[in-house]
Predict the 3D structure of the following.
Amino acid sequence: MNAFVVNLIAAMLRVATPLLLAAVGETFAERAGVLNLGIEGTMFFAAFLGFFVADATGSLWIGLLAAIISGVLAGLLMALLSVTLGVNQHVSGLGITLLLTGLALFAFRLRYGGRSTPPAIPPFPLLDPLPNVPILGNILQQYLLTYVAFLVVAPVAWWLLYRTSFGLNVRAVGENPEAADAAGVNVFRIRYLALGIGGGLMAAGGAFLSLSQLGAFTHGIVAGRGWVAIALVIFGNWHPIKVMLGALIFGGTFALQLRLQAIGLQLPIPYESFLALPYIVTLVALVLAGRNASYPAALLKPYRRE
Amino acid sequence: MFEKLSRPRLRIEKAPAPPWQRALIPILALLITFLLTSGLILWGRANPFEAYYYFLVEPLSSRISALEVLVKATPLILTGVSVSFAFAAGYYNIGAEGQLYAGAIAAAWLGVALRGVPPALAILLMIFGGFAAGMLWALVPALLKVKLAVDEVVTTLLLNSVMAFIVSALLNGPWRDPKSGWPQSPEILLNTHFPKLVPRSRLHLGFVVAIIAALLLWFIVSRTSIGLKMRAVGLGKQAARFAGVSVSRTMLLAALVSGGIAGIAGVSEVAGIQFHLIGELSPGYGYTGIIIATLGALQAIGVAAAGLFFGLISTGAQTVSRALGVPVYLGDVTQAAMLLVTLAMLLLQRYRIRRA
């Protein structure tokens, strides 16, 4: 295997990490019956806050923690609007995205001014568990959060959703809240929990971008990854492991365009075609999955006890 | 006796609120929003009262800045109308941002291609061209929705990202301005510039177009059979189908008109303000349009009012930023906060306060 392929696989896992975290977060929300379009803003705000707190305290871990807490709170705000108040989920989610995006930009400008070079901090280091093994060792040079996302978050999410009574309740309130309520499940509490957990995971994805991958915060740091994550949830049929597969496909396409750019391949088409490629691949995947997508039956419907 | 004393004199009960109570909701929402955002202003080391003066009053105190409010309101009313068309038919078009840029691309191209065409005709062609381009960009997600049941929210959002790359590819590639070398398209010809409505201001024909679009929204949705079908589909697809309405055709139509009007917003910004296609043409007008459509209850008069008010907030945010050094993003935060607060407050409509 040559260096190109090794680099490609390593980059695929890196690129897929924030998408996997965010998409699993969205899976929790949607399984409980709430489409959370606040995802993009939650990721953006977490990327900012993680950076901001890490810079202020000198600790990446405190930054990560602050980011995750902000995501949980954003999820609970979504719950307040969509679960308690029963507001249209599309509009409240987008409203949260716009609010959090504006807040992050406001705070960033206030703290760092309009300087031309963004401030930077030393990011989380790459782990190197097998330094002397040639190919596998290179592929396994990843950030801790990448390991956590693939080996802990996705499997645990699957286990929670399919093997615990909590997961059964989450799926029940997303499919048939009336029946769940009649069976004694507190629909409101389960939806709040699912949105809170989901928000925390989305935020972890956002913080990965600023604290691991970049060590900085820029206006284009999230660049629609939240929307891609929502597409991956549909593509993966609301199943954490299939969602992981989708994240790897997007990550692979994205990594491929990065590698092609890096080796300076001269092509008669603009490099933006490569940048757009992962989004188009996601779209096509969505179309192919379209007919078989089985949406949680109560998605978008507020639940009211009569 | 103790019980009697503690019994509340006002009671809240679940029933539609009377009109006077409804009228208070927007005012209350506004006050709560300002209370929330004053925390940010204090953080920016400014006095909130002074800031609100610059925010809401100062822009209206001079002729030029008052006209600037209308300039800022123009794209917002257009995207608000665009979103209202789609949402009224229950089609969640979140792609106005991308469709706006599609219209802008058409304007930048026609603006150079229409050499020697009389201005009136050239401008008409620009508007139609932008409408067609916005419609075309809205066609793919609309067809996917009605033919293959692919969720339009996700596809329109993804296509916004794709459109941003197309614009970037054009501006860094074939359309890079040969004169300046900047990533902007060559300047459009004079005969394609939107005429100014008021001399020595930036207010241009686009504002009239926006008002006409709002009137069209009112006319089509509340005065035509197409509009009736749209509302029927928006209220419930099953029921509409039983009533004999072709759901896919109605949705497709609403989606295309929505995309077309967003495209006109792009034309208006290119031909009225920038005269080039630039990457920062829209600071998220397509998304703000969703807020405006929602606050305006998808009604023409409401959308126009919300668009004007948001024009004031956008202008005011720049004034506050210049005068007090508070970051200009205060405007974005205020707009989004106002949406969320109003949404929460609208539920008060379901309750009324009565004397016990």
Summary: Chain B touches chain A through 47 residues (CB under 8 Å). Residues 16-44+336-356 of chain B form one domain.
